[in-house]
User: Fold this.
Amino acid sequence: MPTDQSFADHVCEQIRRAGKITVKKMFGEYAVYCDEKVVGLICDNQFFLKPTDAGRKLLPEVTMGEPYPGAKPYFLMDAELDQPQRIQQLVRVTAAELPLPKPKKKRGSTLKAAPRKSKISSAPKKSTKKAKPKTRKPSSKSRGKL
Assistant:
């Protein structure tokens, strides 16, 4: 079941002071970004926060859940959504612990091999005739010895 826009807006409102919060819709669900890092997912009207060591320290007793079938377990944020300062702190420490995303490649820009040199060139062609071997003239020293 896709997430309601109103629920996604509610989550954003609760965590808005944790950092620069953005949400991107994907397949009827949402990815939650804090300072350009994916910190969680909103799926089936539930907020899932990426598990980190810092988050575990703040949540000694946490419910884990899968945002979608086959996903790794995330922290399931339920009661924390009713405590804005607490959820903001959790999002902040999670973002601080996560690495920045790798830069995306531009579409269509793949590494290409260097262009091969063409057999056709604009330089003048060299003659294909074989050059005659030069005959040696006897040196002045060897002229008298014949």
